[in-house]
Amino acid sequence: MISRRGKVIATNGVELPEGNITGVQDSYKYLGIPQANGNHEEAARRSATAKYLQRLRQVLKSQLNGKHKIQAINTYALPVIRYPAGIIPWPLEEIQATDIKTRKLLTMHGGFHPKSSVLRLYTKRKEGGRGLVSVRTTVQEETTSLQEYIKKMAPTDPLLSECLRQQKPTKEEEPEGLSWKDKPLHGMYHQQIEEVADIEKTYQWLTKAGLKDSTEALIMAAQEQALSTRAIEARVYHTRQDPRNICTEYGLEVPGARWETPPKGVENEQAKILWDFQTQTDKMVVANQPDIVVVDKHRKTVVVIDVAIPSDSNIRKKEHEKLEKYQGLKEEMERMWGMKATVVPVVIWTLWAVTPNLSRWLQQIPGTTPEISVQKSAVLGTAKILRRTLRLPGLW
Predict the structure, then answer these.
(1) Per its UniProt entry, which superkingdom is the organism in (predicted)?
(2) Which of 46, 263, 272, 275 could hold 267 in an S-S bridge, CB 3.0 to 4.6 Å?
(3) How far apart are CA 333 and CA 353, in angstroms?
(4) 219, exposed or middle or buried, with CB in 10 Å at 0-12, 13-18, 19+?
């Protein structure tokens, strides 16, 4: 074999015990990883990562429960990464990308909620986590163990002593940040029960219940307040329309809980809002009790809002009826209060259909009221009535 600057430039091959002749650049597989006399670090990393992801998919497609799936990943898939770790260098970017890919596959198979705590996923089960070992932890443990072994044996082994001398100094690991228990949102559940509950028994379901991974992921996401509930969408992610936004627009106080009955009227120096309130007029008006009346004192405007969810498809006819119904009230308000009044009919069919003018009507309501928000409320109400009336199971 002839080498130049550490690279083999010519060889007649290597004679194996079986009598075969193999080239120096040829390789064989051990634990799914190519072995060779040459240095194929990048190829070895790619091969190890591909084999790891292949085994990970096999485990996730199996019928194991949540606990056993995590154990299978730690003992069946991760050894493919553990074997070459410490022997070949592993860039941090590749390690992080593999961990992200792992969580993505878990999410695709229902084993991890996308907004759940990543730190809790890698925490031991007896401490309230899922018990998964990350690729980063695996590589760091193997690298550290190998370095400690070399330091320990270097005084008695000249080869290891030379290896230690040529070894590049490693960067100090970053100190660990907050635990998932200390997080303001994900750790709120643990903080609330820490003083009043038996923590060991509280989390024993993670080790003894044998639940599916999807069930574990759902329960943990609920504990961490990571589920996309309407309250979280409105108050945390700010992606949902708050039904009390008209009052919020004018700084008016509203009930803290939805089940509290709101007052018939709220008022401050900016505005007055009346809900299901009978308006007194000088001239007799038959329709004088709309759903909502918003009086803007600064702009001298009045918005009369009336909502209808008809059970038939005559939504345009119903919209026209609403406009005519409150025309007399509109004229009386303008005459008595000296303000410009507008009637806003919000008409949605029980099966989601809306009129072409709905967007224009909603824009006249103070605050921000998207079409999808009112449509969703109407359809959910229809579904609730159907389930209660027809006694349909929860699946339907």
Answers:
(1) Eukaryota
(2) 272
(3) 32
(4) middle
